């Protein structure tokens, strides 16, 4: 069973990752907005801009998705079933939850 101190450590880890993701989302959003304003008259620049724009959009989408998932974890972190494997009902190692707070299965399952 996870102790309250361990839950708090996992929560702080998640909150740090959320803060990092929010900064990344802000930066990627600014980049996406500046790509829209780029001069499309220069064929080479527009081709490079399209490629980097697609990469930025993909990174933005993944960051937003990760942010949503981590916020969902924060909503259930204090519930008794947090840290319990959904398959075998055994505790998930705290180290695994620190490395991957979204884990719902133990390393064996």
Please give a structural write-up:
This protein is elongated. It has a domain at 4-78. Residues 37-41 and 43-47 have low confidence and may be disordered. Helix 1 (4-36) runs antiparallel to helix 2 (43-76). It has three helices and no strands. The chain has helices at 4-36, 43-76, 94-99. It is mostly helical. Helix content is 67%, strand content 0%.
Which features does this protein show?
mainly alpha; elongated; single chain; 109 residues
What is the multimeric organization of the chains shown?
single chain
Weakly predicted, low-confidence segments: 37-41, 43-47
Name the beta content range: under 5%
How many angstroms separate the termini?
Answer: 17 Å
| Sheet with most strands | none
The helix/strand class is mainly alpha
Radius of gyration: 19 Å
**H/E element string?**
HHH
Number of strands: 0
What is the overall silhouette? elongated
Secondary structure: helix percent: 55-70%
Mean pLDDT: 86
């Amino acid at each position: 069973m996870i102790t309250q101190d361990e839950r708090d450590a996992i929560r702080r880890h998640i909150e740090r990752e959320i803060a990092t993701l929010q900064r990344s989302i802000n930066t990627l959003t600014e980049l996406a907005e500046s790509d829209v304003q780029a001069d499309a008259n220069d064929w080479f620049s527009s081709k490079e801009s399209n490629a980097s724009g697609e990469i930025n959009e993909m990174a933005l989408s993944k960051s937003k998705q990760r942010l949503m998932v981590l916020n969902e974890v924060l909503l259930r972190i204090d519930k008794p079933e947090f840290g319990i494997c959904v398959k075998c009902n055994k505790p998930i190692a705290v180290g695994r939850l620190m490395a991957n707070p979204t884990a719902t299965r133990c390393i064996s399952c």
